[in-house]
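User: Reviewer 2 asked us to show a designed sequence for the structure in our supplementary figure. I'm pasting the structure tokens here. Could you produce the per-position amino acids so we can include them in the response letter?
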């Protein structure tokens, strides 16, 4: 599964006006294709990747982008190309940023199991669902030890917005989209695994509001996230044959895995601990040094050490893409989400600058609601953001200078350490009128990015079923001149709004 896959940088040929954002079809999938536990699946996934011209590398972000060189104007469309995809990592991705906030010393050894913070080992069987298992395992771990849930991989991998099917694999962009849209998770009891069907009409038992993408190969950041959240989802390349564990890269006695090559990841696992002193001699092939992460697999308890295994710090893939499930809340009956990006972060838009602006306009429901939070992705670490609100937006907003979007009020601002998705609480919650057209606006300044805005967009890879009819989004290089994202870019803006509509409307939640 988990090919950290560079989606092809599909070039948008359209040039509608001088003010046209460039779109990068650029989220990298950790996991498309296969990810079953059989050798064939692995091989097939790899071939599929190669056939598609996808190469390994990068994280889900702009590390793959080649900064614009050919066209100077910030308002000229630019697009990455496959050839430019091997771009160098921005400094922020190489580690370091996470170290700033690292006061306490990390232990040299840690094992989430000893604190009751790992969920029981599961078995994905022959299906290409490792991405769903790893995602929900990491989410379950983040709730432990206080709360123990068994969540449904069937429901996530049967999501009708996805087109690959359970044999076709998946990736973390899909699991993020599923969870952040509140289509799930549901419980295993509600939708048992492997029966080929998922009931319709189930409500999410948790509302996920933050999933961080930790910097590539930042061991400190990964360890801190394991301490905070119990587990971190990551990916590796495995040539293991089913449950037998037969591979030249794997020592069955010690449960130690080390792959030194550069084949793309094809399997997702969850990092649940580490041992800095794990001897290099315990691996089948000797890595350059000691140390290993403890990982939980989804191949049943027969595999490895009761379902767990050690992966060398020097493994070619583990630690490149790392997801921390940072916030999941109990659903409340009056919580509501406004969104247009059911399929999530499938591409990125921008104007060749690290700064870009985006708006989504929504129509409030029929009763009064309190707008409390706004949620969006950032594509690289250390993004600065400003969130603005627009009230009573006219039906056909005036998009030029001094137009409808100039009547905005600053509602929150800050900086995000990690890439990924998070929600921002407004400085002052706002009471919306019934049926009001309101807008949420974000200005992002993302060092190293030229496409800072995450968009839902069809990269043509057949992964997701995109609906562009459900949104009213706008993009801007400067917050002054705007273009309609659906019309000029074939994109929905990934920018959600969260409201609350309690019956009493007595706002006491602060
Ligand atoms: Ca089922
Ligand atoms: Ca949509």
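Assistant: Here is a per-position design you can include in the supplement:
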């Amino acid at each position: 599964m988990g090919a950290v896959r560079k989606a092809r940088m599909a070039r948008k040929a359209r040039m509608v006006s001088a003010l046209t954002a460039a779109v990068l079809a650029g989220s990298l999938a950790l996991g498309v294709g296969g990810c079953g536990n059989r050798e064939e699946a692995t091989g097939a996934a790899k071939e599929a990747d190669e056939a598609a011209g996808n190469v390994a590398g990068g994280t889900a972000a702009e590390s793959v982008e080649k900064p614009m060189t050919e066209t100077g104007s910030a308002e000229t469309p630019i697009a990455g190309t496959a050839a430019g995809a091997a771009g160098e990592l921005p400094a922020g991705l190489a580690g370091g940023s996470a170290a700033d906030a690292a006061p306490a010393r990390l232990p040299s050894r840690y094992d989430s199991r000893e604190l009751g913070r790992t969920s029981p080992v599961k078995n994905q069987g022959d299906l290409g669902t490792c991405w769903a298992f790893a995602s929900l395992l990491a989410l379950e771990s983040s709730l432990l030890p206080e709360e123990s849930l068994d969540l449904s991989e069937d429901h996530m991998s049967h999501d009708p917005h996805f087109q690959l099917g359970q044999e076709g694999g998946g990736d973390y962009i899909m699991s993020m989209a599923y969870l952040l849209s509140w289509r799930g998770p549901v419980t295993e009891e509600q939708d048992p695994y492997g029966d080929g069907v998922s009931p319709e009409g189930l409500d999410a038992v948790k509302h996920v509001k933050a999933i961080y993408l930790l910097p590539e190969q930042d061991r400190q950041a990964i360890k801190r996230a394991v301490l905070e959240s119990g587990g971190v989802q990551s990916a590796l390349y495995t040539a293991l044959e089913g449950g037998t564990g037969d591979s030249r890269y794997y020592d069955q006695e010690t449960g130690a895995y080390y792959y030194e090559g550069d084949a793309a990841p094809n399997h997702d696992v969850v990092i649940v601990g580490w041992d800095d002193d794990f001897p290099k001699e315990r691996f089948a092939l000797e890595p350059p040094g000691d140390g290993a992460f403890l990982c939980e697999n989804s191949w049943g308890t027969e595999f490895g050490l009761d379902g767990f295994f050690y992966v060398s710090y020097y493994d070619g893939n583990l630690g490149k893409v790392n997801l921390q499930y940072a916030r999941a809340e109990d659903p409340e009956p009056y919580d509501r989400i406004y969104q247009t990006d059911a399929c999530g972060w499938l591409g990125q838009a921008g104007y060749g600058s690290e700064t870009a602006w985006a708006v989504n306009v929504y129509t409030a429901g029929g009763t009064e609601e309190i707008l409390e939070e706004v949620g969006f992705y950032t594509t690289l670490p250390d993004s600065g953001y400003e969130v603005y609100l627009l009230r009573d937006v006219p039906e056909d907003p005036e998009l030029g200078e001094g137009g409808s979007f100039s009547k905005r009020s600053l509602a929150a601002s800050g900086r995000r350490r990690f890439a990924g998705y998070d929600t921002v609480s407004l400085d002052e919650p706002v009471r919306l009128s019934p049926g009001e057209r309101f807008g949420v606006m974000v200005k992002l300044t993302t060092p190293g990015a030229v496409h800072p805005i995450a968009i839902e967009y069809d990269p043509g890879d057949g992964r997701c079923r995109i609906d562009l009819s459900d949104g009213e989004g706008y993009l801007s290089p400067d917050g002054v001149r705007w273009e309609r994202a659906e019309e000029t870019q074939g994109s929905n803006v990934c920018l959600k709004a969260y409201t609350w509509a309690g019956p009493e409307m007595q706002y006491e939640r602060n």
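For the response letter, you might also mention the following. The radius of gyration is 22 Å. The longest strand covers residues 419-432.
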